[in-house]
Amino acid sequence: MTTLSSRAGTKGVPRAARERQVLAAATEEFGRHGYEATTVAAVATRVGVTKPLVHQYFGSKQDLYLACLDPVGDRLLGAIRAAMAGHDSGAPSTPLRVLRALFTALDGRREAWFVLYDPSLPPDSEAAHRAAHHRDAIDDLAATGTAELLRAAGTGDPLDADALKHAWRGLCTALVRWWINHPDQSAETMTRRCARLLDAARTAFADGGERA
């Protein structure tokens, strides 16, 4: 009986290339359908390989999920950190820079956001704990950013900051979901759209405060 070497692939495709294909398909399946509804068989069918081959390359379904999750989490964290780093005075506001970074990081793999924010992960599983670790790291950055915005507005109420952090997470999730449903919209188009929406919201809330 022969076994595939670390470099061998299937149907003439090198193993490294086939693994990338499997991860791309699995990321979309997990992001689109959630962990619970995704099957290794469905991923294999999309790539055109057998289910045993996927198991051979990546192990269990949870192992395959983790192989998708970690690159997604690391990419998003890196993008957000870079967006929040030092910038010149003429740069867009921090929220807009973060949104642009998210859209750019997710361009071509929009469903990846929902690999990280998946409510169907088995409780107390390694998958749930690892996803929570990435989400907590993103939340820490969001907490820093929202606290800075509120301090600039003259308020330091920690509950205000916590509420705004949760609202920001919901906004990002809603925008990515809308973006998935509008595949013709590019990352740059989404950034410009968000700039208009943020300006409109700022004006609306300012007008409301003046009337109050």
Automatic annotation (TrEMBL):
GO molecular function, one term: DNA-binding transcription factor activity
Pfam families: TetR_N (PF00440)
UniProt keyword DNA-binding, yes or no: yes
PROSITE patterns referenced in this protein's UniProt entry, alphabetically: HTH_TETR_1, HTH_TETR_2
Residue ranges flagged as DNA-binding region: 39-58
Keywords: DNA-binding
Highest taxon of source: Bacteria
Domain HTH tetR-type: 16-76
UniProt keyword Metal-binding present: no
Name of this chain's protein: TetR family transcriptional regulator
Protein species of origin: Streptomyces griseofuscus
